[in-house]
Amino acid sequence: MKTIIKAYGAADAKADLKPMSIERRNCGDDDVKIDIMYCGVCHSDIHTVRNDWKGSKYPVVPGHEIVGKVVEVGKNVTKFRQGDLVGVGCMVDSCQHCASCEEGLEQYCENGMTGTYNSKDKHLGGHTLGGYSTSIVVNKEFVLSIPDTIDPKATAPLLCAGITTWSPLRHWNVKKGDKVGVIGLGGLGHMGVKFANALGAHVVMITTSPDKSKDAKALGAHEVLISKNMDEMRKHKNSFDFILNTIPVGHEMDPYIALLKRDATMVLVGAIEPLKPFHGGGLIGGRKRIAGSLIGGIKETQEMLDFCGKHNIVSDIELIDMSTINDAYERVIISDVKYRFVIDMATLKD
Q1: Taking burial as the number of CB atoms within 10 A of a residue's CB, which of 1, 172, 250, 303 is the most buried?
Q2: Contact 173/201 with Cβ under 8 angstroms?
Q3: Would the pTM of this model clear 0.85, i.e. be above it?
């Protein structure tokens, strides 16, 4: 059985997002039905709508930073009940039995995790449709509890931007006293600064823009390093324990590799595209590492949300109406947002 609901989506790569009706499956025995209150706007939404990464399936209904209230649960669901505040991130399913899934790393499912949008929909056929919609039905294993101590609308971006930055900080064991660089002050970078600060690190925002210094320090950076200033870059050479690189496009890597200590790691979370060639000597000369990281698994995402509840950490957002989403996309592209748009989904329901 299926239900027709309201949504916003794009019919093709050249089309604006417009109102449309979509189908949702009815709540099954292992499912949670969620009335969506807020949905964050991720740059991945734009890439998918515009088929920048190829492989987009239309219509595209984006949205994988979802916060809402439980309105129905299946008979096998014991963790959630009607009225609970919950979240859904970038995944709504996985095989749940491969080695990665069994380790709580569903994002690396060896049989392919099911994305919240633009993935194969094993229930209805076709492809999954995301959170720019009034409701969603999700397997209970992929629903997250939202602490009641934090603002739900500003929590939405934690389900992607938050976990994307939290996961590498935890995996590489960033701890009190470490010198941590965060490259790029945007939707990802501002969360990286907040998390690294809360973990006790000495946080250095690395940016090309001197005018971002005040904001970076307000978010928790202890220093700001202007990467265009070669004298300053030389002063910080071989001094970082860890660098989180959030730059979303291909870029020069050598200047940042030079900042790492011996045996230190720089993790890429932004550039899902070819990088500019870099000199192998920069790595070999200090046994340095470049790594990549996706989002986090469900267990790790819940740990992040609980940490945020304890430390009162949320994203800095601008709340928008659904009807302004196309303008918001243009503003994201030119970095005209501090630091994440969140859609008030009540404006779709009206």
Answers
A1: 172
A2: no
A3: yes
